[in-house]
Amino acid sequence: MNTQAGTTETITDDDLITGWGLFHEALSATDPLLLRGIDPCGKDMSGPWFEVLIRLQRSPDHRLPMSQLAREVSLSSGGFTKLADRLERNGYLARQACPSDRRVTYAALTEEGLALAEQARAKHVALLREHVLGPLGLEGLQALAAQARKLRDSSRESGGL
Amino acid sequence: MNTQAGTTETITDDDLITGWGLFHEALSATDPLLLRGIDPCGKDMSGPWFEVLIRLQRSPDHRLPMSQLAREVSLSSGGFTKLADRLERNGYLARQACPSDRRVTYAALTEEGLALAEQARAKHVALLREHVLGPLGLEGLQALAAQARKLRDSSRESGGL
DNA sequence: CCAAATTAGTTATCTAGGAAGATATTTCTT
DNA sequence: AAGAAATATCTTCCTAGATAACTAATTTGG
Which of these, A125, B16, B74, B140, has the minimum number of CB atoms within 10 Å of its CB? Predict the structure, then answer.
C-alpha cells in the first residue's frame, strides 16, 4: 500500500514509525539531562518532583488543590497522594485545608520547598539553554514548539473521552 | 537577565520552560492514543510491549539479544528480564541460546508473537496517520522529526557519559 | 596463556504509581 | 429540600521497573 510515490504527498508506514520514534528518542535522551544535578545536593531530581515544584512555585501563594496538581502532572489521585506524602515528609510541602470547599486540600510549598523550587528551576533553565536552545537555535525550538502545540491540542480533543 | 529584547535573539526563562513543556504535553497527550485498542482483544497495549514487539518484528529471524533489546527500549537489564518473562508466559516470546556467544540469550518472537506484532503495528500506523500526520501534515511532521533528530543526536553526545 | 576487567543474564529487594473502593463533601435534579 | 450524581482525598492491594549482588562466559593486557 505504500511505495514511495512523489515524496510530496505520501509517507511510508516505516517512515511514519521512524519519525514518531525520533520524537520519543529525543525526549528520552534529552529529558534526563535537564534534571541532572539540579537537586540541592547536586543530585538529579525526579521528573514528578520537578513538575510539582515548578507549578507550585509559580502559583499564587505557592499552592494548588491536590487534584488539580495531580491532573497537571499526569498522576492519578492515589498516586499523587503518595507523592505529596513524600514531599511533605521531606519538609518541602504542607497540606492546607480549603475553607470554601472542605473536600479540597491545598498542596502548599514550605519555605524550604520554595527555596528548592527556585534553585532547581534556575539550574534547569541553564540546562535547557545548553541542551535544547543551543542545539536547536531559537527557530528550531519555535518550530518544535509550534508542532508540539498542534499535536497536544488535537490529541486533547480526540483523547479527552 | 531576561527582558524580551528583540524577540529575535533572546528568549525568556518562562518561554523556554513553556516551550519544553509543550513537548512533554504533546507526547503525553498523543502517545496513549497511538496504542489505543491495538491489542488483539481490542485493549490498549503497553508502551514497552509495543516497543519490543516492533523491534523484533523488523529484525532478522525476528530476534535480538536480550541486552540489546533492553537498551533499545530503555530498560535496565533486570527490568527487561521480567518483561521478557511476561511476554514468554503469554506465549509471544521464546528465549533462544546463542551458539557463538554462550552468554547471550536471544529474545525471539513466536508465531503468535509475530502475529501480534504485525496486527499491533498495522493498527498503530493507522492511529499515527489519524492523530499525528492528520493534525500536523507532512511538512509539520517532517519539521518535528528534523528538530527531534537534532535534539536526540546532540543529547546522546552530551549524555552518553 | 592466565589473571583481570567486561559483558550477559538472572535474582532478590525496594520504590513509584495505577486501579478500585471507601468517605466526606458539594452540586445537580427534580 | 431530599435524593442522586459528581468531586476530592485517602487507603489497600497489585504490578512494573530500578538497583545491586551474583554467576557464567568472554575479552584483554601483560
Answer: B74
Q: CB pairs under 8 A, 24+ apart, for A85-94?
A: A87/A49, A87/A52, A87/A113, A92/A53, A92/A116, A93/A52, A93/A56
Å from B50 to nearest chain A CA?
A: 12
Q: Indicate whether A7 pLDDT > 60.
A: no
What residues pair up with B7 in beta bridges, in sequence order? none
ipTM of the complex: 0.88
pLDDT confidence tier of residue A8, bands split at 50, 70 and 90: low
Give the pLDDT mean for B28-41. 94
Check whether domain A35-159 has CATH 1.10.10.10, yes or no? yes
Mean pLDDT of the region B29-48: 95
Per-residue burial over B19-50, b = 16 or more CB atoms within 10 Å of its CB, e = otherwise:
bbebbbbbbebbbebbbbebbeeeeebeebbb
Taking the Cβ of residue A90 and every Cβ of chain B, the question of whether any pair is shorter than 8 Å is answered with no
Q: Residue ranges per domain, chain B? A: 36-120
The predicted model gives B76-92 an average pLDDT of 98
pTM: 0.90
Q: Do B151 and A145 touch (CB under 8 A)?
A: no
Distance, Å, B72 CA → C27 C1' = 50
The answer for A 58-87 residues in CB contact with B (under 8 A) is: 74
> Chain B, 121-150: which have a CB under 8 Å from a chain A CB?
121, 124-125, 128-129, 131-136, 138, 140-145, 147-150
Contacts of B134 in chain A (CB under 8 A): 154
Nearest nt to A107, CA vs C1'? D9
